[in-house]
Amino acid sequence: DAKTTQPNSMESNEEEPVHLPCNHSTISGTDYIHWYRQLPSQGPEYVIHGLTSNVNNRMASLAIAEDRKSSTLILHRATLRDAAVYYCILMNYGGSQGNLIFGKGTKLSVKP
Amino acid sequence: EADIYQTPRYLVIGTGKKITLECSQTMGHDKMYWYQQDPGMELHLIHYSYGVNSTEKGDLSSESTVSRIRTEHFPLTLESARPSHTSQYLCASSGGFRAQGKLFFGSGTQLSVL
Question: Is the Cβ pair A43, B102 closer than 8 Å?
Fold first, then answer.
């Protein structure tokens, strides 16, 4: 099963950009890269996803390496409400549920 | 906005009781999942379903059971609760290719078994 590797924790200052890395060296050609975040005492929420090209939405940007073996979630201006655990997971829409492995994620702390 | 609901939000129960955690979604999603998460730890997939009458065990062994009689409903049952079952249980659903596989999570049920 394709798995991801993320740093355990990162710190950021409020209103500064944050780059959260994720390695997925065993990614297959049909795996989509998804990012979710989990605020304290809540279920995870979707942030962004992509396949090959970089993606932008109102929450974040996703930069995908050309070889797809790594990706970076970019929060352009961190706020205190962005403090959460961020998960990078690989999803294969063909149906193999073994790919839905969340791992420990990266705990992002945001300082005022 | 997610339309997936879990009840109860919190449950404190004595050892040996039978419990059912409810999960319902109004998005018509075929795929539904149950995850278990201890405080500060990662999510573990314990059950999933591809559709009505389809259920599979996840990567973490669990004494719980699930059923999928209706598309929108995916309850989880513990026949005899034990303190080792104390954890947060999170239900999720996804809509397949059109929804590009996005997972939508409920708010979770925090279960405490005394």
Answer: no
